[in-house]
Amino acid sequence: MKRASLLLPLLLLLPILTGCASKTIVLGSKKFPESNVLSKIAKRKLEQAGFTVEHKEDLGSTGIVWAALKGGSIAAYPEYTATISQEILKVKGDMSEEAIRAALQKEGIGLGGELGFTDNYGLVMLKSRADALNIHKISDLANHPDLKVGVSHEFLGREDGWKPLATKYGLNVPNTSGIDHSLAYLALKNSQIDLTEAYTTDAEIAEYKLLVLEDDRNYFPKYHAVFVYRLDMPQKAVDALKTLEGTISEDKMIAMNAEAKKTKDYNKAAALYFAGSPNAAMTSSAPEASSPFRVILTLIGQHLALVGSSLFLAILVGVPLGIAASRPGGVSQAILGIVGVIQTIPSLALLALLVPIPFFGISARTAIAALFLYSLLPIVRNTATGLLEIPASLRESAAALGLEPGAQLFKIYLPIASRTILAGIKTSAVINVGTATLAALIGAGGLGQPIIRGISLNDNNTILQGAVPAALLALAVEFGFNLVDRLLIPKGLRLPAPKD
Q1: How far is residue 373's CA from residue 117's CA, in Å, rounded to a whole number?
Q2: How far, CA to CA in Å, does 258 sit from each of 37, 101, 186, 223, 419?
């Protein structure tokens, strides 16, 4: 019976860790509405061509999606020519489409033709604020070093981003900070910042009455929208993507972005592309979304699978490491040092580092691995601390009884240290519930999915659909472990109940 109880979690974990062979074509998209809408359009085109298609939304920045494409976790995603040359190929200056295509082919990646519009970067201000300060060109910013600038973290670090732009235009604006692209528009509207970067097809430009400053020194290259795809993708699927080339105008893309923002539904926005086509009825008659309650239950299930699987692995590994760390010597210091260093790595950075590694990619495996690593420190440290705090007199008594070292550990030391060990496991579990929301950035699902989607669409209700269940789940985990304490910790070692 005990063996069966130990095998059950492993059996539940096996499909997540090994994955399932599938002929499904997986599309990806970055963490902003336009990328998601374009992938929804491509998904319907591929389905019309007879393929089964999965779409992984809101996968984060360029680096994460590109790594997923190269690693085979996705087969295609929408990209922009200047981003490919500047950020992916790391080539300064303009590259022809032929040069980009040749460079990508060496990576096993194909380049589709232009979709018909450009989504360029631009710097924007509230028109009323720009008029008041007489700012209409980027070069005018040099006369206003006191402006508050908030640009996306990606734009801050891009080769074609803020720092090179500031150098070219001679700007010295010390009050510059990073902010999520979608939240920057709200900050601009509320006068919390004066300037941010925008995509020129963003619906917010008209909605918030923003002025796109003239790029009078021609800093920004042209960002022609294209699809990039793996060269091993079926030719019929490539041909389906090619039917999109030259069919999306800038006005149509702006309208679809506005629809996504208004309806909070990427499928409805994508349906505008097919409006009036012979297949319009077919493409719009099968909505992907279920009822909100059912969706939330599904996300909670995914979240619990991520947290439970990673915590189970962390207990299996962390407790033995904690036992080893409780013994004097260099091994103890090495174990505590390594798990301590792992804890200092930012969670998003750790996810991004794992994505390019074979076997991981954008999947639940990657999220579980990252959460497992983050779970180790509290478990290892609390196990070691609990064992080290056992009084010497008890150790001497255990030895005097003639017990073997293994029996001393399992029958005396671990039960005595159980309260401290379980406290470490509880801490890891509660932290994991919150950290697991980042799994949505690599397509692993969970309650982070509505949070990230809500941020992208500036929709607080969608954010709360993920944030509230995550908070309640953390409380439920805390309560559950309090019950476990009463079942597993010897009665004499439990904390006394508080007196009135």
Answers
A1: 43
A2: 11, 32, 16, 20, 55
Domains 20-117+223-284 and 121-212 equal at CATH topology level? yes
Among 201, 107, 203, 220, smallest CA distance to 159 is for 220
Distance (Å, whole) CA 81 – CA 111:
9
Give the other-Cβ count within 10 Å of 257's Cβ: 22
CATH of domain 20-117+223-284: 3.40.190.10
Q: Which two tokens stand for residue 99?
A: 């040069």
Domain 292-493 sits in CATH at 1.10.3720.10
Coil vs helix vs strand at 199? strand
Both tokens of 197, joined, read 């970067």
Q: Are 136 and 195 in contact (CB under 8 A)?
A: no
Report the relative pairing of strands 76-80 and 210-212 from DSSP bridges: unpaired
**CATH 3.40.190.120 is held by the domain 121-212:** yes
Beta bridge partners of 210: 126
pTM above 0.90, yes or no: no
| 456 touches 180 (CB < 8 A) | no
Neighbours of 296 (CB within 10 A): 17
CA distance 438 to 428: 16
Nearest by Cα to 322 from 428, 421, 432, 430 = 421
Crossing angle of helices 266-274 and 250-263, in 10° steps, is: 150
* Bridge partners (DSSP) listed for residue 79: 226
Tokens of 206: 């008209």
Q: How far apart are CA 269 and CA 221, in angstroms?
A: 27
| The amino acid at 295 | V
Helices (H), 74-126: 81-83, 97-105
Q: What are the structure tokens assigned to 471, written together?
A: 């908070």
Axis crossing angle, helix 414-435 with helix 292-325, rounded to the nearest 10: 140
Domain ranges of the chain: 20-117+223-284, 121-212, 292-493
What residues contact residue 160 under an 8 Å CB cut-off, 6+ apart? 82, 83, 86, 87, 121, 220, 221
What are the per-10-residue average pLDDT scores of the chain (500 residues)? 44 44 80 93 95 91 90 94 91 85 95 94 94 95 94 85 92 90 87 92 89 93 94 95 95 93 91 74 46 84 92 94 89 90 84 80 86 92 90 78 79 86 91 88 84 80 88 88 74 54
